[in-house]
Amino acid sequence: LHSLRQRYGGNLIHTYAGPNLLVINPLSTPALYSEKMFKGCRREETAPHIFAVAQSAYHQLLTTRQDQTIVLLGKSGSGKTTNSQHLLQYLVTIATGSGKVYSAEKWQAVYTVLEAFGNCSTTMNVNASRFSHIISLDFDQAGQVASASVQTMLLEKFRVTRRPEAESSFNVFYYLMAGADAALKTELHFNHFAGNSAFGLFPHSKSEDKQRATQQFTKLQAAMKVLGISAEEQKTVWLILGAIYHLGAAGATKAGRKQFARHEWAQKAAYLLGCSLEELSSGIFKTQGKGTLPRSSSVRQSTDDTDSSGNVLSKATAAECLEFMASGLYSELFTLIISLINRALKSSQHSLCSLLIVDTPGFQNPRQVKNQRGATFEELCHNYAQERLQTLFQERTFVRELERYKEVHKTPITNIQTSTVRTLSRTDEARGLFWLMEEEVVQPGGSEETLLQRLFSYYGPAEGESTGHTHIHAQTHTLTFCHRQIYALFSSCTCYYRRIYIAHPYIRLKFSLDDPNRKSISGMFAGRSSSVAVLSGSIAGLEGVSQLAMRRATGMRKTFTTGMAAVKKKSFCLQIKLQVDALLDTVRRSRVHFVHCLLPRAEVLRATGSPEESYDPGLMQIDVALLRAQIRGFKLLDSLRIYRQGYPDHMVFSEFRRRFDILAPHLTKKLGRNYIVKDEKRVSNYLRE
Ligand SMILES: Nc1ncnc2c1ncn2[C@@H]1O[C@H](COP(=O)(O)OP(=O)(O)OP(=O)(O)O)[C@@H](O)[C@H]1O
After folding, report:
1. Is residue 361 within a helix (H) or strand (E), and if so which, with residue range?
2. pLDDT-derived band at 487, boundaries 50, 70, 90
3. How confident is the model at residue 180 (pLDDT cuts 50, 70, 90)?
4. Any idea where the Myosin motor domain is (predicted)?
5. How far apart are alpha carbons 218 and 226 in whole angstroms?
6. What is the Cα–Cα distance from 597 to 21, expressed in whole angstroms?
7. Helices of type H across 123-206
8. Distance between CA atoms of 191 and 440, rounded to whole angstroms?
9. How far apart are CA 178 and CA 193, in angstroms?
10. Bridge partner list, 71
């Protein structure tokens, strides 16, 4: 702790803790990422740095030809996404061929688009990611990037329609509302905005916010252009976003017949989607019978799920029906954006092995920023993903090391707290969500209902923080909130069916094909294969063309299809678990490098807005209690102890032989260049001598 404080005070944000890198968010933009740093950034040779982690992973990829993954862990706002970008910046600079197909500019554009569509402002971070993603770089024989792809999961799609107080919707809505030029504004009916919105979606009111959003919109358009997203395609994206905005402005009736509350706004949404008001209204509010569905594999899947427990939409309120549609549309749009990004990154060049970068939304607990509300279901899901990755860290750091030590020494290692993940999780900050999820959802007899109740015991306002009415009110509110969320998510299959109804080529049977908006929207969705559609709304970006990308996609699909029986039971939580399983399965196949991102102080990201604008050397101070909690949560001290006492740096005999037999030319001479080794251990010992 002392070292970290001293280093941080001296503007040294990177520190090694054994094999892992710790990065403390500088809350400023220090000059640490210049091209000068690229040179000789070998872990063994330089001071701790995020580039050195990239270099080390790349070096291991080249020498072992084994896939490598860099996993970023940490609280929300601790700097995971920023560090992922630095990793990529380094890798594409050192390992991109002369063709520059994967330039740093292109990656910058990828992140600009991802941040516009998948980030928002939360109580912990003004630009928080609300989805998990894997960036994959596939390398060829010469160690150059041959192809790349992005897979995303756990998108918080319901944020479009409801979210905790004082948090925003996805950035892109504000960019579009502020930055659309006059022609686009007219086209989207954005010349004046509604006073009401069922989704709480309003343009920025402050002029500086508006100005920033306008700049961001220009930046987004430029980034889309860099990624080869045509003007026509961009327009389609704006049409869908515009339609979602107008659906919010239209709202839904609170009682009586389910219908739009303000028809003039609904009319605008219908126009943008290219259908009539009646068609849109019945698509959203009317219950569809089983027989009316067109036959297609993906549609059949949805009907199975929908009808087994009665008609979900008939139970949902009009507002919920509207929310299903809007968030479903957004989720489809997001999947489409990922496809467009992958189109720009794809290449059919042969590749040998991959380097993956995994970034998921960070741990978050509203109480950390003195927020009295309980956590939302989405926060639970993101914490769950983080906790599973943390479990992987422990598995790789402790379990294997302890076994190896015991194997060599025949006695167990001392001094290491070998508490199981279970007890660990229960006591640390992550609050045992991993086990909560596993116990309540996956075990027989588990149910979402009990999950919610237990969620409360973890996330309800703490004792002594407040008493009486407010306390209970906060809990009830969150419970209702969670219930609704789950209810909505449960019904997402119905929503999915409806999305197809709107977006699928089948729409042609129903809606006028001649409508230009309709044509461009269905044209964009039509190209996607049905196998991609099966995972629609869960994992996006599985349409890779390179061999390695296809192998990854098959692995992820398999996780879903083996659990499909369970998915048919419509357990949304299980679907979340499957998405995280797919992520973990992909990571597990590789050698993993961990980067722990640490938050020096809470609230500061909220308080100061963009850290870049508020650089003040005096800010390099640390909230010691917060830092200590993070170090404990990551189990960093134990990982250091095991690093000292165990065998953290090791290589298997075959690797040792391959790497060092150049030093024993007499051996190669005697046995031939490609000598076949039966006993690697014996040859390795021979080499050592
Ligand atoms: N190494 C760094 N150098 C400069 N700025 C940084 C660094 N790390 C983080 N920041 C700043 O901190 C802010 C939060 O970082 P970032 O969004 O990357 O966090 P995160 O861990 O990805 O958050 P979330 O989990 O909520 O998505 C960013 O605005 C960024 O500018």
Report:
1. none
2. very low
3. very high
4. 1-689
5. 12
6. 8
7. 171-179, 182-187
8. 49
9. 11
10. 358, 594
Residue carrying structure tokens 């050397």: 617
pLDDT at 526: 55
| Residue 597 alpha carbon to ligand 1 centre in Å | 9
Provide residues with CB under 6 Å of ligand 1. 25-26, 29, 74, 76-83, 125, 127-129, 361-362, 597, 605, 611-612
Q: What is the C-alpha separation between 68 and 60, in angstroms, rounded?
A: 8
Nearest CA to 116 out of 254, 201, 213, 226 is that of: 213
Q: Which of 429, 356, 349 is closest to 387 using CA atoms? A: 429
Summarize the confidence of residues 395-421 as an average pLDDT. 67
pTM confidence score: 0.79
β-pair type (353-359, 68-74): parallel
Q: Is 537 left (phi over 0), alpha (psi -120 to 50) or beta?
A: left
Which residue has the least CA distance to atom 8 on ligand 1? 79
Tokens of 673: 């260049």
Q: pLDDT: is 444 or 127 the higher one?
A: 127
How high is the pLDDT of residue 201?
94
The token pair that represents 184 in the structure block = 């686009």
Q: Write down the pLDDT at residue 604.
A: 53
Burial class (CB in 10 A: 0-12, 13-18, 19+), 619: middle
Give the pLDDT band (50/70/90) at residue 17: confident
Which residue's CA lies nearest to atom 15 of ligand 1?
79
Pocket test for ligand 1, best of 14, 15, 50, 81 (most atoms within 8 A of CB): 81
CA–CA separation, 85 and 467 (whole Å):
44
Per DSSP bridges, beta strands 591-598 and 68-74 are parallel
Residue 227 binned pLDDT confidence (cut-offs 50, 70, 90): very high
Structural tokens at position 7? 């280093």
Nearest to 497 by CA among 319, 339, 321: 321
132-139 and 14-17: which strand pairing? Answer: unpaired
- Cα Rg for the chain, rounded, in angstroms? 26
Boundaries of every domain in the chain: 2-392+483-645, 653-688
- pLDDT for position 620: 63
Decide if pLDDT at 245 tops 90: yes
Quote the pLDDT of residue 38.
59
- Chain position carrying tokens 């699909």: 557
In this structure, CATH architecture of domain 2-392+483-645: 3-Layer(aba) Sandwich (3.40)
Higher pLDDT, 90 or 503: 90
CA distance 586 to 564: 18
Q: Are strands 20-24 and 591-598 parallel, antiparallel or unpaired?
A: parallel
| Full DSSP string of 400-434 | HHHHHHHHHHSSPPSS-----HHHHHHHSTTTTHH
- Are residues 168 and 130 in contact, defined by beta-carbon separation less than 8 angstroms? no
Compute the distance from residue 629 Cα to the ligand 1 centre, in Å: 19
